[in-house]
Amino acid sequence: MSKAKAAPPPGCTLNINDPQVQEAAIRIQASYRGHRSRKELREKGPPKILQELKDVVLVEGSAAKLECRVSAFPDPFIVWYKDGKELKDGPKYRYVFEDPDFVALVVRDGVLADLGKYTVTIKNPFGQTSGSACILVEVPAKVSKGPDYMKAKRGTTVVLKAEISGEPPPDVAWLKDGDDIEEDDRVFFDIGDTNTILTIKNAKLSDAGKYEVFVENSLGTDQSFARVDIL
User: Fold this and answer.
1) Does the domain formed by 146-230 have CATH 2.60.120.560?
2) Where is the Ig-like domain (predicted)?
């Protein structure tokens, strides 16, 4: 014997001929079509960068992170470059994909050579886009290799050379026996990007002594010493 169907609870019946019901149905269908259209546009659209990359400062020995917010459906193919050269995901450079729309590059173990322009390309089947920013590296002033001990004869030219580094580029000073050297045509020094050279022409017995090269920038100081004997 078949069971009689239970009547729906009060208020749960719909009259499809009711104009309000028909209007609600039209709104639901329109909303669904709009959602479907938006979804389709998102899926078929080329990548867009919604938040640009920004320059970052990397302190020597630490890590830096470049990131941007993107919109790309389907999921894009990401490649990072430094000064036009592709960077491989690995121990030094790490590709990061953060939910929901952020892509990032982490640069580890910062050194001065990491200074440069970084570019990300974002590509899917419907197109591609790219963005760029710079990593600015800060390195404490350092005397990488100090001057060597020198022994020279009177009347000869003495040259003391030191290798230096630092970003911002350091200020450089040379001292003799603790006092700043006052340059003239006979005793003077030059400062390059990676070295500094002190020249002493027509060496005299009074030029013998303890020489110091001193470097300084906003992140630190360093110095190195060498003895000069004049025979």
Assistant:
1) no
2) 47-138, 140-229
pTM: 0.64
- State which CATH number among 3.60.20.30, 2.60.40.10, 3.40.50.720, 3.30.479.20 fits the domain covering 19-138: 2.60.40.10
Token representation of residue 150: 């020198």
3-state secondary structure 30-91: HHHHHHHHHHHHHHHCCCEEEECCCCEEEECCCCEEEEEEEECCCCCEEEEEECCEEECCCC
Please state the rounded mean pLDDT for residues 172-193: 96
Least confident of 16-25, 59-68, 106-115, 180-189: 16-25
